[in-house]
Amino acid sequence: MFARAALTIERRDGVLAIPAVAVREQGGRRFVYAVADGRLVERDVVTGLRDEGDDAAGPRLEVRSGLKPGERIVAVNLGPLRAGAPVVVRGERARGG
Description:
With 97 residues, the protein is an all-beta fold. It has strands spanning 17-19, 24-26, 29-36, 39-44, 46-51, 60-65.
């Protein structure tokens, strides 16, 4: 016999939460790739609570510091990423001209 249950230990409203897959760990630090001025930048983050979620979006992590609401981040790994790489956001028109 098998059962699955979810238990809410703590709830916080009005927090910044991002997909857990966006948070990377390397050398003891946690960071996300954000988009700034058309390039990838690493932003160190401090995370808090984790919500396993019950929808297709998957688990989400609270971000206590390191990101501001509205900052664009890379939430899908489409291959090796590195800071400074140029970024094109689908659906946005190129700036200038």
